[in-house]
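# step 3/5: fold
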Amino acid sequence: MTSQPRRTPAEVEALTSWNDPWSGLRVVVLGLGSTGFSVADTLVELGADVLVLAGNADPERADLLEVIGARLVVADLAALDPALGDIGGPPELVIVSPGFAPSHPLVSSFVATGVPVWGDVELAWRVRDKTGAPAEWFAVTGTNGKTTTVQLAAAMMVAGGVRAIACGNVGLPVLDAVRDPNGYDALVVELSSFQLHYTDSVSPHSSVCLNVAADHLDWHGSADAYAVAKAKVYTNTRFACLFNRDDPATRTMVEDAEVVEGCRAIGFGVEVPGPSDFGIVGDFLCERAFIDDRHSSALELTTVEALEAAGLGATHMISNVLAAAALARSFGVSPEAIRSALDVFRLDHHRTEQVAVSGDIRFIDDSKATNPHAAEAALGSYDSVVWIVGGLLKGVDLGDLVSRARKRIRAAVVIGTDRTEVLAAFARHAPELPVFEVTATDTDQVMPTAVRLAVAAALPGDVVLLAPAAASMDQFENYADRGGRFATAVHNMLGDRPDDHEHPAPRAPGGA
């Protein structure tokens, strides 16, 4: 790294614009996934002296780092001295990729030395004025439904004539959106709890935490720490904090949040809305928040029937639609534009995606249900389910979910490396249910075996549901690989389609 005079932490914290003096700043970037590379690329463009530290590195990204002028060290990061000795000396700023928990030895060592430690979202907020007047930010987090909500909100805004894009944990790194030379009016930013932990100065136009349930306890250390990270989405919000009336924890987060004076609290939920709320009256989704006469009237947005036709009729999906509509309406998007966007919107692959129907049995791929909260939402959408469940549990106990959902479950098929804990949850909370264990260790055999067992247990009218309530990386590349293999196994068993039901894996920093 360069030998120019070292900047103090206060001088680094004062960097709040693309046009500030970043040149020569000694920065360490932890991680070289899509997020880490976007950070390094941005910092090099700013003129910083960039050293990337990674436990492993994709060869293509490593080559690109050399081309753009950043340096890379691949090493056992847990064993590195934070002084960095002969590989550059102590940094003036550290940018942490979302996968690095605060308990990671190198991260905690940097924090202890007093060097500023940011995430990619914090950096993006500070340099958001690169192309001129910065876009407004709409921040979205939650245990379940984030991606659908940001995609919906961005689509509604675009339909209303707003130059908007979904970014962040949804796949496009927020720094790439900030640096787009064409610029945007609005960024709808999906934020994981990991990203929020490393964020402090973001001040969004509007924000929402969709719901909160225990997840990623292995990363955060406790359910309380996870909830605290989620609640940061509301900090410094300027126009509207949206909370889920069906999840009291989100209301409490808003009540406790430090926001900009004049910021409003707006509720959404699947019951009749009060003033300043979004909700349902009969078959109509309505709002009583951003209309002049909200105390005595409501504005129609769409109908439950229309959402059902678009595959958005499940209760948790309706909640996502209401949250997205509230974000869009907070920015002045018309009801007509919202309806237009909903008419053409379709869910991502692997999110309650119908794969096939055979003999009055439906096969549903919700591989994106990587935590119990998401799986419970999927289970609640069907009356009788043969449930394919299991994977990396991330420190979460499935007992409560099994107990609540037992009346909807015909049988369970358990996959994954943490099967013992899942089997124990069924034994404790639903001992009467048939439970089948997939013991195959060959990834190519896991889903064919699971589908065969599920079909044998299913009766006409049942849904065979892949909603694992767990991460996928124990046996699969990612949730998309898991879902694609499920669909392939279903079609192979039914003999209705060649073995080509694959979907590309999404780019995503990870987290929830």
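# step 4/5: annotate
The chain has three domains: 9-123, 133-344, 353-494.
# step 5/5: archive (pending)
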